[in-house]
Design a protein that fits this description.
Oligomer: single chain
Shape: globular
CATH topology of the largest domain: 2,3-Dihydroxybiphenyl 1,2-Dioxygenase, domain 1
Radius of gyration: 16 Å
Strand content: 35-45%
Largest sheet: 4 strands, mixed
Number of helices: 2
CATH architecture of the largest domain: Roll
């Protein structure tokens, strides 16, 4: 059996690089590790860290095709971020014009969570620690 150590990164293709870069850095608080413009592909690649851990590659490509996201389309369902205080996190998102769904409670763990979307309507979740 293969031994996986951890998730290395998540790759996200965005439709508007400047808008998504601002969302992931200024709203969600990721730090820029590196940023590259790849002229041959007319594409940006932004490496983002959460704390000291590299975790998201944000890409731009000219005219990427739309992806079906909802309702419950086959494929990656959502990306979840752990938070210590869900109420404060939701308030911050709302103050930054990010719409969040009503807070729910996980029926199996008893933990609270909510969903919201990035600028390309990719489903994201906050899950209280």
């Amino acid at each position: 059996m293969i031994k996986l150590n951890a998730i290395h990164h998540i790759a996200i293709i965005c439709s508007n690089y400047a808008v998504s870069k601002k969302f992931y850095t200024e709203v969600l608080g990721f730090n820029v590790q590196a940023e590259y413009y790849r002229e041959k592909r007319d594409s940006y690649k932004l490496d983002l860290k959460l704390g000291d851990r590299y975790c998201i590659e944000l890409f731009s490509f000219p005219n990427p095709p739309a992806r079906t996201s909802r309702p419950e389309a086959c494929g990656l369902r959502h990306l979840a971020f752990e938070v210590t205080n869900l109420d404060l996190a939701v308030r911050w998102l709302n103050e930054n014009k990010v719409v969040t769904e009503p807070i729910r409670t996980d029926e199996y763990t008893g933990k609270r969570f909510t969903f919201f979307a990035d600028p390309d309507d990719l489903p994201l979740e906050l899950y209280e620690q």
